[in-house]
Every structure is written in structure tokens, then in C-alpha cells.
Amino acid sequence: MEPNLVHIPKPKTGLRIRLLRIRWKKIDLFQVLAMIGLTLLALFMLLPIVFIINHAFKPISELFLYPPRFWSNQPTLFNFQQLILKSQTTVIPFSRYLFNSVLTTLVTVAGVIFVSSLAAYAFAKQRFIGRELFFSFTIIALMFAPETVAIPRYLVIANLGIMDTYLVHVLPLLAAPVGVFLMKQFMDQIPNELIEAAKIDGAKEWVVFFRIALPICMPAVATIGILAFQGSWAQTETSVLFTSTESMKTLPYYTMTLTNGLANNVVGQGVAAAAGLIMFAPNLVVFLLFQRRVLNTMAHSGIK
Amino acid sequence: MSKVLFQHIYKQYAGEQRVAVKDFHLEIEDGEFLVLVGPSGCGKSTLLRMLAGLEDISEGNIIIGDRIVNYISSKDRNIAMVFQNYALYPHMTVYENIAFSLRLSKLPKAEIHERVNRAAKILDIESQLHKLPKQMSGGQRQRVALGRAIVREPEVFLLDEPLSNLDAKLRIQMREEIGKLYRRLRTTTVYVTHDQVEAMTMGTRIVAMKDGVIQQVAKPEEIYSRPANLFVAGFIGSPQMNFIEGKVRVRDGYSLFETRKHTLRISEDKSKMLRDNGSIDKPIILGIRSENLLYRNDDLAKPEQQMNVFEAVIEIKELLGADTYLYTNNKEQRIVVRVDPKTRFEEGERIVVGVDMNHALFFDKNSEALIC
């Protein structure tokens, strides 16, 4: 239960207005300033989103306006039309890239959640030799930017013999130290008694994990899901580095080519804008769906 | 329902010098309500956890029924445990919490439903079955935890300080409920507590522990009236038993208990026992409970008891409603006296306290063991 932080005396007359006034009095100048500042910041952060949405619907004449505008005067679906038409003329249809992306992202998200939470459960609730050591490896892994390990990663993939398969879009992303770390922070907070109670109730380790630990950590699972989704959905590295067949590449790679090199023409800009929105939209939807849970994780992870 | 047998149990945690449990040997009868009591760190919870299979046994055997369970995992020991913090699954409703173990043992749905409802009825939580644990009060949560235990119909119930998270009033109420539940089910129960009142009121037998060693195993009446040593005497009973240091001397055929300033005459049978034990002229501690100290005003008793009095000054007065406790000082030490609350006392007042020597206990000062 939340304690009453602010004591509000009950007005004898029971007038609501008076109560409201008392409440407002408690908000000091700093809070007002902070509120205004944060609102402005939020609006500023909103600008790219507004731009991306409007940009996709701009006719060619507006796409190249200088200075650029946030809004579109004559919204049109022309760009989307072009996107579909264009991909019909290429060898690999747009839908193939989309399918590749959706498939590999879904598998990656599920995989990251599964691997991270299992590792975190072991780190948080199991006793084994080298527990601290392995966890510090995970923490150290947090420090490396992906670029720094690109070459060893390439060698691993090449030697595994999975080049040019769907696995290359999934496997490198499964090692998600952030996910393990977040999950462990969360799992640490599950009381041991809960797990012991489940064991006495007849649960095996797997059952404890799936029926007790994981459901309790749903907020963290949602957060990791979002992180994994964002990490997978928008990345082009695996397509660039590990695939050579066009039909194995993903949507962000395709979007990238639209604005690169030969395809960089006037129509390409419009198509790219439309594709950009298609790339962006799922991010927004996923985040809006899970944001409550994410906030919960941030509050629980101890990082704050 | 089963017997439980602890055979010379030792427990030493890895990386620790101290031995948590030392040579614990005890047989718990079928259907007994055994209370393990002792201060924190005395090893009582460790024992319970070993019995539950949550902790390895360093040495010795634990036998439930006729099986040695040392290497049998918790889930196969056919026990149920109630934890201090209830340990309810927060994401499951009360119904699911109670049904969890039955579902895992793959009972048919109809039977699960019937058993959950029966347990809920016994514990009076039928109307709460759809709620989540966080929507319930502490007392109700404890009922759910009990429900989760009884629904399994285990051989042994283990309760680990189940009432310590409840407020005083609820604690008394739940104490009564657990007692009722036990009388109804008559399942072997091991109850761990640091609260001597719980131990006294609930147990059919009490095991008092200190530093991992059994101090005494006895029925509540016995542990109260004949504690085996100074530790048990001081731990059981509230307010604590008064301890007076002194020596036993023989004068004119009477055995007398002498401190620096006071002399008390020892009753015939006790003086014989003291003499047989060879305790004359040796340092002795006399233990007397506050209810065996009598306030005397004008009727300074019969002549032969006149000796067993001393004067004391009231330092603190504690009104408890039914009783009043006077914390007095007899120029040597603090003595707690229970008096009738109807009599008025002032702090700082001088009173005469009579000692009922028939209820006095004598402990050897060196071994701390009870002599008589």
C-alpha cells in the first residue's frame, strides 16, 4: 500500500475547490519548471516521429523542399505504391525481405528471452562452481561495442558453416548480456522461499522456472523482448556480413539499398520514406504495448 | 501421518567454522505437535529445512515413516511447509496457489476442485479463492499458505515461524486456528518458533534449543515447572524467571539458602535432595518465577514462613490488566513480582516479598543444570 506522502487536511465545508487549491499549493516552483521543461523535451523528442510519419506521405514535390517541413500539405499514398511497384520489378520481391525480417526477428526475440532468462535464473538462484566468474564474464561482455568483435564473430559464423542461412540473423544476437543482466536483477528479487515452496509442492527445476520464476519476471521479459526486437528488427550487419544470397537478406538491408548507390534517385527517396515508416511502425507498436512493464523493470532493476 | 526420526544429526554450513546443529537425536511420535523453540541462530530453522530437504545433512539420518530421506528430494518426501513470509505465488490466484501441488501431481480436475474447496472451507477462505495474494491481508495470506499445505494431505507438516509476520491480535487468532486445524487433522507437525508463548500454548512437546544443541525435550507443563537448566528456565516464561545467586548452608538442622543479605529456608524434601547431591556450601542459583513470589502487607504470615521474606523497593510497575508486575530491587538485584492488579502500588514504595520456597528451583552455578 502506498503511504500518504502529502497530508491533506479535510475541509470542513467539503468544498472540492478548496481541496484542489490546497493540492496545488503543494506543487512548488521547481516542480512547475520541471514539468514545463520535461514537456518541451518530450515534444522535441516527438519531432522525428512526426517527421517519419509525415515524410512517408509526402509527394515528390514536398520531399525535396528546402527548408524541410514536418507536415505534409498534400498527403499521398504514392510512395507506398512505388514501393510495391518497384519491388515487383526486382528479382526479390519486397515481401520476401519483410518475411525474412519478421521471421528472424520473432525467432530472435523468443530466443533471447529464453536464453537470457535461463542464464539469469541459474545466476540468481542456483549454486554452482564458477557462478560469479561466469556472471562477471557476462558483465564484461556488456562493455564491448559490437563493432569490436565483428571479426571474431565473422570467424565463428564462418567456421560454424551457417553462412547464408537464417541462423546468421539469429545466432549472433542470442548472446545478449544486457538481457541476462536485467533478468538477473529481477530474478534476484524472487524470494528463495517461493522457489523452495514450489519444490516442496512437487515442482521440478523446469517447472519452477516456467511456472514460477518466469511469470513473476514478466516485466523484465517484456523489456528484454523490446530490446531484442529493436536490436534485431533494424539491424543490417548480419545481412551485410553473413549473407550473400539476396533472398536471405532482411528488410532493413533492403531499405538501406534504396537510398544507397544506384538506387539513389528521386523516386528512391519517396520509396525509402515509405519503407522507413514500415520499418519504424512495429517499433512504436511494440513499445506502446509493453511500456508499462518496461517502466516496472527500470524501477526494479536497481539501476533506476 | 508418520513418525519422524532424527538420528544424530549434524549440520555444518560450507565455509563456516561453527556447527549449526550438533548431535540432534529425537523421535517425533506419529501425530505429535512438536515445537522447536530457541533464540535466533540456535539451529531450529536449519533442522526444519533439513527435514524439508532444502538443506543437506552433514551427518546422521532423517527418517520419515520408514524411509531414510537424506537423499530424497523435497518433492518426494511427502511433506508440506508453511513459511514465515507465506511464500505464496504472487501471479496465481488463491485457488491456483492451493491447487498448484495437486496439478503437478496430475490429479483429475474434479478431485482437485473438491480438495481445494474442502481446504478453503476449513480455513474459511471460500470467498477469497479468486483473489490474488496481494489483495489479501496478512492473516488471510497465512490461511492460504496453510491451505496450500493441508490440501496435499502430507505425512508431516512443517511450519517455520508462521506467525511472526502477523500483528499481535492476529497472531493469537491464528495460533488458535492452527491449534484447531491440528486437532482436526492430527498430522505430525513440526513447528519452529522463537516465541515461547507459541511454544507453550501449541506444542504437545517442546524442544528447547541453544547453539545447535538440544537443551530439553519435555511437555509444556514440565518445561515450565522443571526446566532442565538455566537457559531453558530463563527462556521459557514471561517475565523471565528470577535468578538469585547464593549458597546452601546447614544450620540447626535446617538447610538455608543464603545470599549476602538475605536468608531463605529450603523445604524439607528439597534440602534432602540438595544434601544428597553434595551441593552444600557450593555456589547455587535459585530460580523462582514471579508468580511464586507473594506480596505481603500486614499479615506477615505464619511464624515458620517468616524467614522467607525480604524487603524490596518498587522500581517499575507494569500493568497488564489481569496481572501487575512489579520490578523491585531487594538491595542486591532486580526481582520481578506478580501481584494482584487491584492492590495499588506506587513506584518507590517499599514492600515485603514472600518467597514460596516449595516452588523454588536450584541450579548448579557451574554446570547450570537443575539440581532440584
UniProtKB/TrEMBL annotation, chain A:
Residue intervals passing through the bilayer: 29-53, 97-121, 133-154, 166-187, 208-229, 266-290
Superkingdom assignment: Bacteria
Family: Belongs to the binding-protein-dependent transport system permease family.
Species for this entry: Paenibacillus agaridevorans
Subcellular location: Cell membrane
Membrane topology note: Multi-pass membrane protein
Residues covered by the ABC transmembrane type-1 domain: 98-290
GO biological process terms on file: transmembrane transport
Protein name: Carbohydrate ABC transporter permease
Pfam families named among the record's database cross-references: BPD_transp_1
Major subcellular site: membrane
Listed InterPro entries: MetI-like, MetI-like_sf
Keywords of the record: Cell membrane, Membrane, Transmembrane, Transmembrane helix, Transport
PANTHER family: ABC TRANSPORTER PERMEASE PROTEIN MG189-RELATED-RELATED, BINDING-PROTEIN-DEPENDENT TRANSPORT SYSTEMS INNER MEMBRANE COMPONENT
Record-linked CDD domains: TM_PBP2
TrEMBL record, chain B:
GO CC, any one term: ATP-binding cassette (ABC) transporter complex, substrate-binding subunit-containing
GO molecular function ontology, one term from the record: ABC-type transporter activity
Keyword tRNA processing included in the entry's annotation: no
Residue ranges annotated for the ABC transporter domain, each copy included: 4-236
GO biological process: carbohydrate transport
Keyword presence, Nucleotide-binding: yes
Cross-referenced InterPro entries: AAA+_ATPase (IPR003593), ABC_transporter-like_ATP-bd (IPR003439), ABC_transporter-like_CS (IPR017871), ABC_transpr_MalK-like (IPR015855), ABC_transpr_MalK/UgpC-like (IPR047641), Mo/tungstate-bd_C_term_dom (IPR008995), NA-bd_OB-fold (IPR012340), OB_MalK-like (IPR040582)
Domain of life, source organism: Bacteria
Keywords: ATP-binding, Nucleotide-binding, Transport
PANTHER family reported in the protein's UniProt record: MALTODEXTRIN IMPORT ATP-BINDING PROTEIN MSMX, OSMOPROTECTIVE COMPOUNDS UPTAKE ATP-BINDING PROTEIN GGTA
Name used for this protein in its record: ABC transporter ATP-binding protein
Protein species of origin: Paenibacillus agaridevorans
Phylogenetic lineage: Bacteria, Bacillati, Bacillota, Bacilli, Bacillales
